[in-house]
């Protein structure tokens, strides 16, 4: 299966690409549709951007909303999840002494976002340490709820964490935040197309996700979801044609007939809308290729590779399998110069994979997508065995 699927992607054949999680990879049929949209735009830019764009942007909103368990009025297209989360973080009315509760597993760009907001507002960031290995839902949820206080105004959590590839069980934490009047803001950058989402049932106030990662649409396609009750809290990062002076009045409509939430964020001057318009093609591609079966195969391959590496290193995993992202796993490796190891993996074995130190743990983060294969996993283990001297270490353990 992987060999046939590999031919449907544009990944260079001389690279063993095990880093789908960073920026994704777009299948050839989806990429072709992306280029069709770009060519159509260039054929008559004024008609495309000036007269047709609002209607064109609606179709992927409808298709994506159905996929994500919500309605088209609750999501808006963006270039990436970081943009959506910045819109939320910079819109909320925070004051000196207010607290943003988060974990020690968050994406560095968003850590900087909240630090920026705190510098402007006087709010404070409170970081709770999630106990590892993560073995139960209660272990996670109890840690989060214990961190909540009367000063907590925002709960900011990743759904799937970037450095540790953990699937956080966030449902009860969100429900508790709602009961306490705490805004819940969820970083779902790795989640769409990776796990099944029902955003309305999840109940987070704000949820941002990328489509260009595991959903495999072109780079620059993402969304922000906001519950209807909190959409009025948001302000666009850029004031442009979609804004109206009456946008905060009850029942107001945006400049292009949608809600202010959609028009103010969606219409922000000249940009290439082709990535967002191609989301529908990406959803079609997944359905046409039985992607549920592909994902099941990838999950099995990822977990098997992590198990095999653990047997070589003697290091325990950082979570039970159910709390590991299905197609992405953070594999602990012996203490090493992670920057040099990453370079050696690429220079000597043509393996593209993130290697870094997170807190006190050295991690090799493996992503497995439909274009990957077991021989590639075997090569990764061979390379790590060589570069880290794992055979010698295993021999010492059994001596």
Describe the structure.
InterPro entries: Aminotrans_V_dom (IPR000192), PyrdxlP-dep_Trfase (IPR015424), PyrdxlP-dep_Trfase_major (IPR015421), PyrdxlP-dep_Trfase_small (IPR015422). Keywords: Pyridoxal phosphate. This is Isopenicillin-N epimerase. Residues 27-353 form the Aminotransferase class V domain. There is one protein chain. The protein folds into 2 domains: 2-27 and 290-398, Aspartate Aminotransferase, domain 1 (Alpha-Beta Complex); 44-285, Aspartate Aminotransferase, domain 2, CATH 3.40.640. It is 44% helix and 15% strand. It contains 16 helices and 12 strands. The strands form 3 sheets. It has a 7-stranded mixed sheet with strand order 2-8-7-6-5-3-4, sandwiched between helices. Strands 9-12-11 form a 3-stranded antiparallel sheet. Helix 3 (28-43) runs antiparallel to helix 4 (45-68). The longest helix has 24 residues, at 45-68. It is globular.
CATH topology of the largest domain: Aspartate Aminotransferase, domain 2
Strand order of the largest sheet: 2-8-7-6-5-3-4
Count of DSSP-assigned helices: 16
Question: Can you tell me the CATH superfamily of the largest domain?
Answer: Type I PLP-dependent aspartate aminotransferase-like (Major domain)
Q: Tally of extended strands?
A: 12
Named CATH architecture of the largest domain: 3-Layer(aba) Sandwich
CA-based shape? globular
Low-confidence stretches: none
Helix content: 40-55%
Which CATH C-level class of the largest domain is it? Alpha Beta
Mind describing the biggest β-sheet? 7 strands, mixed
How confident is the prediction overall: mean pLDDT? 95
């Amino acid at each position: 299966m992987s060999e046939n699927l590999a031919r449907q992607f544009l990944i260079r054949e001389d690279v063993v690409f095990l880093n789908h999680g960073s920026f994704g990879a777009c299948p050839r049929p989806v990429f072709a549709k992306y280029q069709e949209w770009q060519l159509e735009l260039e054929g008559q830019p004024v008609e495309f951007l000036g007269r047709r764009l609002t209607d064109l942007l609606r179709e992927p909103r409808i298709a994506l909303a159905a996929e994500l368990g919500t309605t088209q009025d609750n999501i808006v297209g963006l270039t990436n999840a970081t943009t959506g989360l910045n819109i939320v973080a910079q819109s909320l009315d925070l004051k000196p002494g207010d607290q943003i509760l988060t974990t020690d597993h968050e994406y560095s760009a968003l850590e900087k976002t909240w630090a920026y907001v705190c510098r402007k507002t006087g709010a404070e960031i409170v970081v709770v340490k999630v106990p590892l290995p993560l073995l139960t839902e209660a272990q996670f949820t109890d840690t989060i709820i214990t961190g909540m206080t009367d000063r907590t105004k925002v709960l900011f959590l990743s759904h799937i964490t970037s450095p540790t590839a953990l699937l956080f069980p966030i449902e009860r934490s969100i429900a508790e935040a709602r009961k306490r009047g705490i805004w819940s803001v969820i970083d779902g950058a790795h989640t769409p197309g990776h796990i099944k989402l029902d955003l309305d049932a999840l109940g987070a106030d704000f949820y941002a996700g990328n489509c260009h990662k595991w959903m495999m649409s072109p780079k620059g396609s993402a969304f922000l979801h906001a519950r209807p009750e909190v959409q009025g809290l948001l302000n666009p990062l850029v004031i442009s044609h979609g804004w109206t002076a009456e946008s905060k009045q009850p029942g107001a409509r945006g400049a292009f007939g949608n809600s202010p939430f959609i028009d103010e964020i969606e219409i922000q001057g000249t940009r290439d809308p082709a990535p967002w318009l191609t989301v529908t093609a990406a959803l079609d591609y997944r359905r046409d290729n039985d992607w549920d079966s592909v994902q099941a195969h990838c999950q099995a391959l990822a977990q098997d590779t992590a198990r095999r590496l653990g047997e070589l290193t003697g290091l325990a995993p950082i979570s039970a399998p159910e709390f590991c992202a299905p197609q992405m796993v953070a594999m602990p490796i012996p203490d090493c110069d992670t920057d040099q190891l990453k370079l050696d993996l690429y220079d000597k074995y043509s393996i593209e994979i993130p290697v870094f130190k997170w807190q006190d743990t050295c991690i090799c983060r493996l992503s497995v997508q439909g274009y990957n294969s077991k021989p590639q996993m075997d090569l990764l283990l061979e390379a790590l065995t060589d570069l880290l001297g794992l055979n010698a270490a295993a021999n010492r353990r059994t001596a």
